[in-house]
Amino acid sequence: MHRVIDRFTIVGWAMFLMPVLTMWHEIGGHAAACAIPGGHVREIGAFYVQCTGLTGVADVLVACAGAGVNVLLSLVAFALWRRATGDATRLVLWLVWLTQAFVAAGYPAFSGITGAGDFGIGRGGALANHGIPVYFAYVEAAVGIAAYAFLIRLGARTLSSMLGDGPATLPARREVTLGYYLTAGVGALIVGLLNPIGVFVTIMSAAASTFGGLAGLLRVGAKIDPSGTPKPFALPPNRQMLLVGAATLAAFALVFGPGWRPTP
Question: CA–CA distance from 221 to each of 43, 67, 157 (Å)?
């Protein structure tokens, strides 16, 4: 059965998508939710947005907007994936919708357990000063974990719809899932180390949102039906994508790694 998954093409797409999808979360979500009601975006970093001038509900919406746009993009990408035909197009759309969904589910799970992050009500959490009762953390953790478990099953099933199933598909599955996971995670970690506000951002944002948030990819790549059969699939070598991905990651690191302050 003909299956070609070029490792370096996956690496290129991961280096491209990680910065683009991260900025969708930070700029399309947090920064936009800050600016639209009249807040001031003081700084946009690779994995954070500093917003001032808002209180109450508007401030809560800023905290929730990042995961909100992740959900929106995931739904759009999923709908497009279902209608797409080319192997490469389907695989890229699959990576977009699943990783965005994993991140959206991971935030409430992470915040509910640790109290930190976009939905956190504990010390350092974005919702810490809004008088939210403690049982909210238990609810969001349960919802996030349940959603994440569902996405692992859905991710495995939809990957099988492209690659087929059975032990013979494991090498291709791992090229896709492990290759993307490691590239995105290492890239995020390196960029996060450039941030000017301390290692906390690197650990709680860069590492948590990639190595933590995308960890479900590893299970998706290993989850097979032993009685399944493979399907023909091809993601051939594309060295241009590798160059585009490297350039995108470098630009992301240089501009947003140290933090970017919009013109007042």
Answer: 37, 24, 10
Q: Where are the domains of the chain?
A: 3-23+67-254
pTM: predicted TM-score of the whole model, two decimal places: 0.93
Residue among 115, 95, 83 at smallest CA distance from 17: 95
Which uninterrupted H or E stretch holds 182? helix 170-192
- Structure tokens given for 6: 């070029």
Instruction: Return all residues near 115 (Cβ < 8 A) that are at least 6 apart.
Output: 121, 122, 123, 124, 125, 128, 137
CA distances from 24 to 29, 67, 96, 108, 227 (A): 7, 10, 12, 18, 40
Among 65, 9, 15, 90, smallest CA distance to 248 is for 15
Kind and range of the H or E element at 11? Answer: helix 7-23
pLDDT tens-place string over residues 198-257? 666 666 667 777 888 999 999 999 999 999 999 999 999 999 999 999 999 999 999 998
Q: pLDDT for 129-181, tens place per residue?
A: 878 888 889 999 999 999 999 999 999 999 999 999 999 999 999 999 999 99
Which CB contacts under 8 angstroms, 24+ apart, belong to 169-174? 169/3, 169/224, 169/228, 169/230, 170/221, 170/222, 170/224, 171/5, 172/3, 172/5, 172/233, 173/220, 173/221, 173/222, 173/224, 174/221, 174/222
